[in-house]
Amino acid sequence: MLNTIRVMALPVWAAWILICTAPHAAATTYYVRPGGNDLNSGLSPQLAWKTITKVNNAQILAGDSVLFEGGQVFAGTLYNPSMQSGTAQNPVVFGSYGSGRATISSGTARGAVFVNVGGIVFRDLIVAGAGITLNNQQGVHFYNNRTGHVKLDYIVITNVEVYGYNKGGIYLQGDRGRAGYSNISITHCDLHHNGDHGIRTEFIFPVSGGSGYGFINVYIAHCVAHENSGEIGKLNKHTGNGIVVGNGDNVLIEYCVAHGNGQGNVNTGGGPVGIWVWDTRNGTIQYCESYNNRTGSNVDGGGFDIDGGSVNCVMQYNYSHDNDGPGYLFAQFIDARPMLNNVARFNISENDCRKNGGGVFTLWRDENATGAMQGIDIYNNTVYLSQPPSGVPAALRTISPQIVNLRVFNNIFSVGGSSELVSLSAANLNATFRGNTYHSTGTFSITDGGTPYTSLAAWRTARNQEKQGSTSTGFQGDPLLTLPGQGSTIGNPLQLSSMQAYRLLTGSPSPLHAVHLQNTFGMNIGSRDFFSQQIPAGGGLFAGAYAGAGVAFPVSWLGLSARRLSAQQAEIRWDAVSDQPVQQFEILRRSSGEAAFRVLESRTEWMEPFETASYAYTDPQAGNGEVWYQIRSTDADGGTSLSPVISLGAAPEAFTAVLAPNPASGPAYVQLGLQRGSRIALSVSDPQGRVLASEQLELPAGTHALQAAGTAALPPGVYLVRVAAEGTQHLFRWVRR
User: Fold this and answer.
1) Burial 416-444 (b: 16+ CB within 10 A, else e)
2) Helical spans, DSSP H, in 524-641
3) Residue-wise pLDDT tens digits, 443-461
4) Cα-atom radius of gyration of the chain, to the nearest Å?
5) Which residues of 652-664 are buried (b: 16+ CB within 10 A; e: fewer)?
6) Which helix (H) or strand (E) holds 283?
7) Which of 144, 312, 508, 578 could bond 480 through an S-S bridge, CB–CB 3.0 to 4.6 Å?
8) Residues 170 and 140 sit within 8 Å (Cβ to Cβ)
9) Are 196 and 261 in contact (CB under 8 A)?
10) What pLDDT digit, counting tens, does each position of 89-124 carry?
């Protein structure tokens, strides 16, 4: 197993693609606009051509540009069969000029076709088909059927939107041996409401003669593939993929989003995936989000995939959620080359496997495959899996024989209901588990070789898993994740690392039971985690996708109110409690007509942890119009927390409540802020919803601190505390250590 994984930044060849686009001095630029005339020279906007037909019959040479008027629509297919290839230094450019992007509207035909040519820049255009029920073609199609496994060099597609094509959006095809393309860049493209795919590279498989790969140096970034439902009439192959690269060498896919694809797939032998590679060497998928992808059959519909014949590929720093199928798939199919040395690390999955069971991490090898599936490392990932509507999924599942040297290290698996933590097929026992956290709010379940285990200790004893020599590793219990199940959709890959869910709270036990991968196995785990926290050069003990310091609970705000003292003055009052020392409050105000809050006063106030404190501030210039207030606290470590916004004169909430401390080694206390006298109902339940303790109290208006009924005697675990009054309620997830 290769332990050093290459983390790809923008490759040298990709940067080269971006700068080598200046045409040579003799290049000609042609203009096309609806008000032009095909008898014109086309050499200026005033002498523009009128139609795509004229472009298709013109002599286009290396370095030339053809620009369509922005904001206008041009009917037809862009295809010039006599066009010369360009080069990286002198490409042939097709794009827009003026304001906005031009639209190539091809009806039921292909949108733009390039046959046996390279050196092409295709930019700033919209390519529109008549819809997948009417257009049974591709949108943008690069086709190479040259003999001798020729790679046509330099293809750049940027700022292009493609929709309405049953056979897919952007399609690069090698149709003879390993004929294909090199130095490919596809960036800032929107591929939607197509059939088969958003972006795809493909060749004839299996290859007849030749070796190597058809698509060399592939860079795909800042693209969105969505609502590509599946090719109508495609019954015996997977369809409805977002972004898929096949037969690639040196592939980087980053900062992309795939969602809502695949629902039209009916093939039961294989299904679609949001973003994936197959038969690829040295491929990286990173900083991407893939969610709500579907399948119309009983297979796949997942987030990410490293598939058949892939070597030295990695999925890292990705976020997968709410997909029908696996979040992260490793699969080896019949006739594929050996699949070797692939990695998934520092990824997050939230509520994948919504359909058909399976595993968030699924490893599958066709029983008739001749190529090996060997050397898979899955480490420092975080999986949150609630009970789906149907099926019994697992956080990690192998469903095939002969998977060799599977290593699963320092992951956090948190599942609910009947979902399993780990399920290893009977024929696949060649796996090593170290330093993982196993948390179930339902029934603890690990199945290994057909034998079920109801505790980590039992599995460790029977299978010698989670042991390093004589030392036990791994942990059974709550990892204390921040906001589990609340990752939601980010939508912008550049902001993935700002996600507040799935960090570790202060006091999390998981890192204490992890394994130092560099010291123990000689592994280089990279320089950062999912959240852009830096990893020391020598590594460390990290659990899940978060390698930073424990996160403190933020300030909880009680009894926040504002009232008028006079026509111009207002008083703001608030109570606060935190598990961190607070050293400063800032009072913020926004008046009617102002776009943003501004600071009225900064007040140094030392608030001890877990103590409720009361504060007041008089605003002498509140004015007589509508005004909004907010409080910002700063703790001793520099962390900040914002209160809810309160409008002067707005009806206050019937009551406020906060539970502290949380987590706790003793009882829990409910801090109440009542606007009027009320009957309060408190109850404590286990994760299955069984009420363990309850009480009802009549309390006057004001602030109250109450010990939550029964919490002093509860054993360690996770509980639900409910506080209700006057038709409203507050629910808290409380951890007893």
Assistant:
1) bbebbbbbbbebbeebebbbbbbbbbeeb
2) none
3) 999 999 889 999 999 999 9
4) 30
5) eeebbbbbbbbbb
6) strand 281-286
7) 508
8) yes
9) no
10) 999 999 999 999 999 999 999 999 999 999 999 999
Quote the CA–CA distance of 236 and 693 in Å, as a whole number.
57
- What are the φ/ψ torsions at residue 713 (nearest 5 degrees)? -105, 5
Position of tokens 């070796």? Answer: 211
List, in order, residues 6 or more apart from 723 with CB less than 8 Å away.
657, 670, 672, 680, 681, 682, 729, 730, 732
**pLDDT single digits (tens) 148-158:** 889 999 999 99
Q: Residue 222 has what DSSP assignment?
A: S
- Between CA 514 and CA 436 the distance in angstroms is 6
Measured between its terminal Cα atoms, the distance across the chain in Å is 39
Distance CA(434)–CA(475), nearest Å, equals 10
The model's pLDDT over 178-204, given as tens digits with 9 standing for 90+, comes to 899 999 999 999 999 999 999 999 987
The structure's pTM equals 0.78
Distance of CA 533 to the CA centre of its chain: 17
Angle at 242 between CA 239 and CA 248, to 5 degrees: 90
- 535-584 pLDDT, tens digit per residue, is 988 888 999 999 988 776 556 666 678 888 876 788 898 887 665 667 78
Beta-sheet pairing, 717-725 with 728-736: antiparallel
Q: What share of the chain is helix, strand, coil (3-state, %, to 5)?
A: 5, 45, 50
- In this predicted structure, what is the pLDDT of residue 592? 73
Rounded Cα distance between 109 and 104, Å, is 11
Of the candidates 72, 78, 76, the one whose C-alpha atom is nearest the C-alpha of residue 102 is 72
Please state whether the peptide bond connecting residue 91 to the residue before it is cis, i.e. omega within 30 degrees of 0: no
- By residue count, the chain amounts to 737
Query: Can you point out the beta strands (E) in 20-80?
Result: 29-32, 65-69, 73-75
Q: Cis (ω within 30 of 0) for the bond into 661?
A: yes
